[in-house]
Model the fold of this input.
Amino acid sequence: MGIKLRVGNLSPSVTNEELCAKFSQFGTVEFVDVVRDQQTGQSKGFGFVQMATDAQAQAAISRLNFSQYGGLTMGVSSVRPERVMSP
Done:
């Protein structure tokens, strides 16, 4: 399973395909989801990208965090794995 990244401060016009292309320069992109409002279909300004390896994810974070994309300063960070609660 890959490393999930949160991508914030996205332009409302950014598509899943464009975000995938942006991150694919750093390695294999396994999943992309620009989060959209269910009723209006408009972007909520953030999304998630899953990279195949930790090294690829770190390369994407170091190069894209605080970079300009779509006229905005994008924020990229790793998503902490969910903790499994034991009974």
User: Anything to note?
Assistant: Helices lie at 16-24, 54-64. The CA atoms of residues 29 and 51 lie 5 Å apart.
